[in-house]
């Protein structure tokens, strides 16, 4: 246990839904980005899967919107220590999209890249098996998900809610499948390679 | 600029040397580090508080001091309503207390002093930018930085007399100082456009709403998106 800080008791009752070191941000949904939020036109928007796949695949906005959707309800965790409970999201399972591209046997990692140039890396295993989505709507239950605003990554962002939220790339443009791990933007700038909130993997070496 | 990359950031103990007010609800803590590390202006430290039952809370705070080679850093903290850590730092911590910290963190919103920089801050967003200003002055190169600070009133400027000088252009949104020719109001294009010289990196820090508006003004003033680095503080609406 870390050394006790004189006089600190902590005001909040520990909620078992909170990973270590996180706090409940309540009704707020902070916006944290390192670059200007782009205005993306859905008429020209695309999402692409390439790299170690049998057939690179690309979708337009209308094609993505025509695919069967899923709803995911749960909590999201930001490395800056806020957690937002009870969110509801809507999007296309990444499994569905990967199936169209056909990952090759050697594919073990993925780099998600955004229309802004932002990148983040993930093990392929973290975005398969029903744990990741290409999300285009979000809200706080019981309200229905509303289209993602520009500052929250709209029109579409990656949603990987079991990892810290910098992995859920805003304004996502595609996934590149790789044999070897390749650190993304924050991962090159000091953040942890995987970012599991329950293991408190915030910074490199955690 | 990968200053924290692939390096384990260990928690260390820091002794509070001094606490002083900068503005209403804004206080600077001068800390002596047990294990000194050189930071880049713009980087931050994480502060962790631990209760007797093992409960911990941690938050990140920007370094206000320039990397001056001493084993000391200054963190400036705004006391947020309902802010579990900032309330404790303001209300309880006194010189002699020991805090757990780790850092410096952040390789993106950081300026190494090697090229021109345009610093655009709103409210407490001035903290990491002041580290850059102080660094430029310490290098004898104040010409490298140009700074615009948007604050509500003259009391909203931190760091005493330091935020004067030809590099610093304060903008007041509610109350202007006597003799000011610019009326009170939000940051506008003609506040930033004359400071753009081409080839600089812009560092924008403030609330999400401020940062978004300031980034849009910089784009309008001709800065490419790739030259604009943003750090946002505090919460937004839902």
Description:
The complex is a heterodimer of chains A (206) and B (238). With 206 residues, chain A is mainly beta. Helix content of chain A is 8%, strand content 31%. In chain A, strands 1, 4, 5, 8, 9 and 10 form a 6-stranded mixed β-sheet that branches. In chain A, strands 3-2-11-6-7 form a 5-stranded mixed β-sheet. The longest helix of chain A is centred in the middle third of the chain and has 8 residues, at 94-101. Chain A is globular, with a radius of gyration of 17 Å. The model of chain A has no long low-confidence stretch (mean pLDDT 94). By secondary structure, chain B is α/β, with parallel strands linked by helices. Chain B contains 4 helices and 11 strands, in the order E-E-E-E-E-H-E-E-H-E-E-H-E-H-E. In chain B, strands 4-3-6-1-2-5 form a 6-stranded antiparallel β-sheet, with helices on one face. In chain B, strand 3 and strand 4 form a beta hairpin. The longest helix of chain B has 13 residues, at 126-138. The radius of gyration of chain B is 18 Å and the shape is globular. The two termini of chain B are 34 Å apart. At the A-B interface, helix 3 of A face strand 3, strand 4, strand 6, helix 4 and strand 11 of B.
């Amino acid at each position: 246990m870390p050394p006790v800080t004189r006089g600190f008791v902590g005001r909040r009752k520990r909620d078992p839904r909170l990973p270590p070191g996180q706090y409940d941000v309540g009704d707020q949904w902070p916006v944290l980005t390192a670059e200007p939020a782009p205005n993306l036109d859905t008429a020209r928007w695309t999402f692409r899967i390439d790299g170690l796949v049998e057939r690179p695949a690309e979708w337009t906005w209308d094609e993505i919107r025509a695919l069967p959707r899923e709803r995911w309800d749960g909590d999201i965790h930001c490395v800056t220590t806020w957690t937002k409970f009870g969110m509801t999201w809507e999007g296309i399972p990444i499994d569905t999209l990967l199936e169209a591209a056909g990952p090759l046997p050697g594919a073990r990692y993925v780099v998600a890249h955004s229309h802004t140039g932002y990148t983040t890396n993930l093990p392929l295993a973290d975005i398969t098996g029903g744990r990741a989505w290409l999300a285009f709507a979000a809200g706080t239950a019981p309200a229905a998900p509303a289209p993602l605003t520009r500052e929250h990554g709209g029109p579409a962002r990656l949603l990987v809610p079991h990892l810290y939220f910098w992995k859920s790339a805003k304004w996502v443009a595609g996934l590149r499948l790789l044999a070897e791990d390749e650190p993304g933007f924050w991962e090159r700038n000091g953040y942890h390679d995987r970012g599991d909130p329950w293991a408190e993997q915030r910074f490199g070496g955690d | 600029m990968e200053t924290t990359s692939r390096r384990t950031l260990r928690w260390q103990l820091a002794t509070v040397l001094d606490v002083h007010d900068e503005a209403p609800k804004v206080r600077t803590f001068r800390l002596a580090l047990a294990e000194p590390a050189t930071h880049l202006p713009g980087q931050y430290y994480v502060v962790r508080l631990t209760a007797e039952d093992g409960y911990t809370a941690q938050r990140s705070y920007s370094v206000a001091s320039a990397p001056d080679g001493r084993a000391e850093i200054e963190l400036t903290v705004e006391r947020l309503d309902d802010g579990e850590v900032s309330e404790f730092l303001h209300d309880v911590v006194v010189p002699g207390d020991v805090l757990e910290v780790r850092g410096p963190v952040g390789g993106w919103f950081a300026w190494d002093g090697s090229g021109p920089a345009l610093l655009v801050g709103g409210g407490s967003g001035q903290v990491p930018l002041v580290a850059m200003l102080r660094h430029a002055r310490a290098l004898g190169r104040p010409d490298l930085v140009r700074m615009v600070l948007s604050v509500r009133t003259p009391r909203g400027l931190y760091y005493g007399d330091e935020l004067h000088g030809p590099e610093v252009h304060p903008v007041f949104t509610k109350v202007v100082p006597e003799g000011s020719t610019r009326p009170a109001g939000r940051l506008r294009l003609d506040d930033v456009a004359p400071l753009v010289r081409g080839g600089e990196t812009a560092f924008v820090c403030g609330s999400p709403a401020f940062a978004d508006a300031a980034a849009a003004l910089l784009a309008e003033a001709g800065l490419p998106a790739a030259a604009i680095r943003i750090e946002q503080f505090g919460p937004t609406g839902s």
